Amino acid sequence: MSSAVRVRFAPSPTGALHIGGARTALYNWLVARGRGGTFVLRIEDTDRERSTPENVEQILDALRWLELHWDEGPHSQSARAGRHREAIDRLVSEGRAYEDEGAVRLRVPDEGSTVVDDAIRGEVRFEHAAIADFVIARSDGSPLYNLAVAVDDLDMGITDVVRGEDHLSNTPRQVLILAALGAAPPRYAHLPLLHGSDGKKLSKRHEAASVQELRDRGYLPAAVRNYLALLGWGFDAETTFFTTEELVERFSLDRVSRAPAVFDEKKLRWMNGRYLRELAVEDLTRMLEERIGRRGLAPAVAIAQEKMQTLEEFWPLAGFLLERRELDERAWAKVMRDGAPERLVRAREALAGVKPFAEPEIEAALRGLVEEVGAKPGEVFQPVRLAISGTSISPGIFESVALLGQEETLARIDATLARV
RNA sequence: GGGGGCGUGGUCUAGUGGUUAGGACGCCGGCCUUUCAAGCCGGAGAACGCGGGUUCGAUCCCCGCCGCCCCUACCA
User: Fold this and answer.
1) Helix (H, G, I), strand (E, B), or coil: what is residue A258?
2) Residues of A carrying an active site annotation
3) Best exposed site among A3, A180, A187, A396 by fewest CB in 10 Å?
4) How far out from the chain centre does Cα A132 lie?
5) Does the nearest atom of strand B lie within 7 Å of A377's Cβ?
6) Cβ partners under 8 Å of residue A298, min gap 6
7) What percent of chain A has pLDDT over 90?
8) Residue ranges in A377-417 assigned as alpha helix (H)
9) Is any atom of strand B within 7 angstroms of residue A327's beta carbon?
10) What is the pLDDT of residue A207?
11) How far is C-alpha A365 from the geometric centre of its chain's CA atoms?
12) Of 2.40.30.10, 3.40.225.10, 1.10.10.350, 3.30.420.40, which CATH number belongs to A329-417?
């Protein structure tokens, strides 16, 4: 009656949602949003051994975090056992399926073939001769995957099935079930799989970052969406950054790649850094304060923002601005040699005389000292950096010193000098 | 074994019967407030899996091969 698109994301709750599943969810969501359709969420929990409520909650949580909101569901597949049973009974009574050692098998024609018209791969033909009569119900009567999927997609009015390529080989079975039920199949689109760096399909076994791991490591949902969208899809020769609106507008299944892709966290990090820098300082501050559980981070955030790639990096990079830290031995060994202590003494003297204690004055003083002692900038700045931060990495040195204040800066330098 | 899918630099991708095969990450070098990061500039890195064909001409068309992956469960 209506031509509106209805897509579904149907994860099996056997573990956390990993990036492959997240990408499938994203593509479904983009199809729905881009065509004014409905995004249905269905939990395929018919494997009672492995499906747990905790896993279901994890998946919902991951989707919420990614801001991939569903319009319908979550439907529980196991709750639809009655419907599956009806379909099985009907197939048996109509002679389309038969009992075999307690289980029920679908009759697959010996001749002919089933053609799947895939939006991404074109027509894919499967000869019936290669498909044996397969089991659709266990001997305890419970439905098997292919039966449940076919019936659910049919009942839920799914118009487009967008899922991983690992399901392509099972598609003719589902089409056959649908045909036996007298129904037409939906349109299919099988996405290329995401592989681990070992070339195998991504699974829970892999280092495979789950969505919550990405969140814990400080990635932003928008960056993850942008990155994931590009894993298997490209718009043109140069565009890399897409707002979510642009994604919705430009995404299309026919531009999805056919070859499997490998998740590259390095690139995600880079992209996340770009998103992080786009954030208003107040927003970034709020996120970090919530994450770290303390307030008053704004000044530190302001000078650290341009050096972070993930939220997780903030504290190691800028925590010294809020509290003293242990000295990093390796940094010490690298920096405090060849007269560095003497230069630090000189730097302390120079800083002690800075008034007002603000960034321009601090910079002038330290640069003046560099001139005076005829050293390379780093030979003066690094000891100071080590003294105030405990390490060799920090936000800009002048900003950092200014933020710390004169008293604290001098105190830290003294403490460092006392160690020499 | 059978069936199916896929094959552009390390990775993600753009691309067309005739292009110096484009972009991005990463990598190397330079600049910059040293380090790290960002930014900017420059660089290395792909004979477009291999072999045949079709064609005046193939990365893009056809065939074969090889490789990888998926399915082939009373898992999903």
Assistant:
1) coil
2) 204
3) A3
4) 39
5) yes
6) A281, A282, A285
7) 75
8) 377-389, 397-404, 406-417
9) no
10) 55
11) 46
12) 1.10.10.350
Q: What is the pLDDT of residue A209?
A: 80
User: Which residues of A spanning 241-270 put their CB closer than 7 angstroms to strand B?
Assistant: 255, 257-262, 264, 266-267, 269-270
Tens digit of each residue's pLDDT (9 = 90 or more) over A333-378 = 888 877 888 899 999 999 998 888 988 899 989 988 888 888 888 8
Count the residues in chain A: 420
A140 touches strand B (CB under 7 A): yes
* CATH T-level fold of A6-76+193-262: Rossmann fold (3.40.50)
Tell me: the pLDDT tens digits for A139-193?
A: 999 999 999 999 999 999 999 999 999 999 999 999 999 999 999 999 999 999 9
In chain A, list all ranges with CATH 3.40.50.620. Answer: 6-76+193-262, 78-191
Q: What are the start-end ranges of the H helices in A161-262?
A: 171-180, 211-216, 221-229, 244-250
pLDDT band at A237 (very low <50, low <70, confident <90, very high): confident
Q: Give CATH 1.10.10.350 domain extents, chain A.
A: 329-417
Task: Specify the pLDDT at position A378.
Answer: 84
ipTM here: 0.93
The fourth-level CATH superfamily of domain A78-191 is HUPs (3.40.50.620)
CB-CB contact of A120 with A191 (8 Å): yes
For residue A318, with 0-12 CB atoms within 10 Å meaning exposed, 13-18 middle and 19 or more buried, which class applies?
A: buried
